[in-house]
């Protein structure tokens, strides 16, 4: 029984370490790249709106640092 417990503990450690390594090595850099790409897209979107003379919606695209996400409420279709 003690051997089984030891095997399960070691397996748990290996899985958890692998998951953490994947998050740090793959997902975090990808997240940073997506943030940069979204910022470029936002800038381009606002530039195009300005070029065609339209005003951005009241809730323009804003990055909320405290939430760590994007406010995409402006994407909702107006009725």
TrEMBL record:
<protein>
    <recommendedName>
        <fullName>Mitochondrial phosphate carrier protein</fullName>
    </recommendedName>
</protein>
């Amino acid at each position: 029984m003690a051997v089984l417990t030891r095997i399960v503990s070691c397996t748990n450690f290996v899985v958890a370490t692998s998951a953490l390594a994947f998050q740090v090595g793959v997902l975090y850099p990808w997240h940073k790249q997506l943030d940069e790409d979204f910022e470029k897209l936002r800038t381009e979107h606002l530039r195009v709106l300005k070029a065609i003379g339209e005003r951005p919606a009241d809730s323009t695209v804003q990055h909320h640092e405290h939430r760590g996400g994007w406010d995409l409420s402006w994407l909702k279709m107006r009725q």
